[in-house]
């Protein structure tokens, strides 16, 4: 559907791909790991920090011990999820996101709740990740702080363009930084441990640790745990995107999932441990990772490498959402629960409408929250864990119902997964409720309602349009039909004549119709018409309120010219086509408006006869 | 053209008016004075302050003497202009704005330069006045300072609504505050003089007067004078709007102009004199007028009355622009130099498109400049004086050329006016050039260029459309015409059948055309078509790049079905009409897109057959 300015589009988006080229756009394990897991891996950059934000203001120095406990719990939860999702990949070779698994096994509403929760979370992922990416940049270069919203928006736009170019190219484009991040962070962790345990460096916190103002409570600990659970967002992406892998896609997907768990264990565990060793203090000027690396590397080149790769991977984390949401929307669109446009592949064979919508919504969030992740965090993660729970519960029910090989073992794993993620979802929901999670509890039912309305609409439209095979085209009896053709006139010019000429080819029962909004102009027209002297009747109606469409509709409805219930009145309208794009601004778009109104009548056909004006 | 939601519109805008009701919407002298002059009268609220902004930082206490000199010069200039414009009103009973006078006597380009300058200045007037109005409000209630942009935008929106309601009602709505302002300021002036000269009050400046850092220079004085000239903006409105007055409109307009001059003399002169007596110091927290009234009234009720009426009249000053610009644009549109829509009267008989555009542009300016008048001021007034000069020069040339009664005397007055306003324009241009006036020097030629392009476009379109009276409708020979009718098909449903039925009424040469973008869907369609078993050929074209319009256009162009140069190919398209407004979002708007592309071909007629889906 590309027209004009194709060159620029080609340069920006890459050339159009044929439908047959779909197969070659698949991921290997090596490139699949970074593109499917950058979200999960990158979240360590803020998950640890979010835990400390909860603990440090209350229990001061004690925070670091409880942070470690919370991190261990989160890593355990992650391994549980990894095992559960391996089973999902086995059971759903064509992609088993929560939406599909829940819909399949628990029914439509459960599926839609999972779908809605994920949709919201994907949008938040892009907003949060790109804001956090900007925070990493401004931690290294504080003079950029005033421009953080602009920087964040630019990052999102780059993501949109990269993703519009297509899956495989984006994985290469986005894969390298992920590997760079993993390597540089692992190097920092190893060097940080050596520095303390072998060289004997005594950590000197960059910021003062506040005095404890209270003591640890179960609620506080759960809140810290809930905040850290953001680290697990994005795991879903692998099982949702099974069809994106090279054949054998299930095997490749499972390998990527296992590798992902390993990397998160090393990176998240390592950074949490370093944070306790080096006593990083969360604040709004410098990120926790920046504080740690600053102590380890003394602001030498490695400090900047860490900041740069952190920024990059955070931005690319948003990319997981760009890989996940358009696919999810396409699934839902195919089932009729989302507008059909989301199921249509764009010029580069990706679901371009989903990509563009995701970019737009996340930019809105960034602008509204002025580029601060902190306000968005409480909304985040609830949705992910709701969808985790529904997906695991769906798998559990599937094993129990279908039985099959080793079904008890499989049901146990998914059942445990469902229980754990359910408890986590409840914990997150309760501890973060007043801070913003309530928004999700309103938004999800609302989105589910909209999705059901959309499905209803499509179903009704399909029913109304369904053609019984015995309803054949009508026999035409050219003599009995009155077939009025109305040609509206404003000025007697070539464009009108062209419309009139066409009208005469389809009927000999023509009425010229003029709506008078200016007496002088009408007089002039009638004089000219008489002078023109052709034997076709003209009818003039005065329009005191200067509306053109009103009198026309009234005339069509009026008894003497009314068509029978099966007859169609044809209105032939000249349309002025200007070749210059700005030309259309200069003409009253009356004919367009008239058409829109007339289209709402059943027994009408509107003929548009273009008259093209070529300008030099 | 009002459809649906008419009740809300009626409530907001007043009911639609018939074209015949135009006459009753005219102004008397009593209501004409406030509506035509609020700009000129209100500018005293900032004109004096702008003079002090230039002088005080340099020459300190000495400023007040030179402020008085500048004010006297400005008042003299105003009287000169009043005399000049009285002659314009006499000569141009149907409204003699600078655009018309300059175009009439000096040629099109001069007219357009005046028109462009005025257009820019009218937009600035609205932005500057509403910002200044907000400043008067925040001077009285400092806690509102953080919301100044929002307040300013709200004020503009109210102005737009008021003006959309129509001329006469807006004059009453807007007239009373102007009189209140005049009364309360005159009271303040009288009481301020009594307090000093009779009661013996020794003025105690609210803010400290800065030490002089330099001495007066001619350039500095001219700059101060130039800044004060903003007081004269808006005088133009009266002569531009002669037709808005009740009959005899010329006499009434001249009376209003004389009264206007008197009021400006009293109010501007009085406030300037008070500022020198009470030593007001310009700053960003409190306006000069606020400082004066604070000393005179000790923050009693009268202080707040002054602030409130100042705020009101400043906002209403923007109203002068709302009375002036739409009329100016309508004049230019009638001559073809602006889009025709500006010459169309809205439901309340005013030029609603001009009103809406003015509101939109000034809101943009307010947002961009964050509600601070100070940055906009240098752009202001240059345009007004350029148009003054052109208008006076035009009048001068008119008298010299036409001669007539007492022409020497008249030519002398307008010639003197032209010279004085020209000198002023040069002074403003030079002294404010680097502060922003340069923008105007770029913008005016650009706008003039656009206006000329528009005129060229309309002229070319009219020439191409002109119908020679001997070119009659074609004789139709029903037998010789091939008249192909193409009916595109996507799904075999009722909507397609309706289109097909219509197609059969206009031709027996029908081709069903299908663009295949999905092999499975196409197979299904063809099976169904064979099963449907009607004797009409179907043609299928594969579209590898998933474009529907490309193969269709190619097919129309293809040799075997090509129409002769005079034949027309008809494409009949079913259009899915959904009664719910949001329904359209849910359907691929492919048919709309196809129509837009097909319309660019000469030998085509597009028939739209609506199929209406009523939802419960």
Automatic annotation (TrEMBL), chains A, B:
Which cell locations does it reside in? Membrane
Among Pfam families, the record links this protein to:
AA_permease_2
UniProt-listed InterPro entries: AA/rel_permease1, APC_K+_Transporter
Q: What is its main location?
A: membrane
The regions listed as transmembrane in this protein's record are 66-85, 106-124, 144-161, 173-194, 214-235, 256-281, 301-330, 351-369, 375-391, 411-428, 434-451
The record's keywords, sorted A to Z, are:
Membrane, Transmembrane, Transmembrane helix
Provide the membrane topology annotation. Answer: Multi-pass membrane protein
Q: What is this protein called?
A: APC family permease
**Provenance organism:** Clostridium lapidicellarium
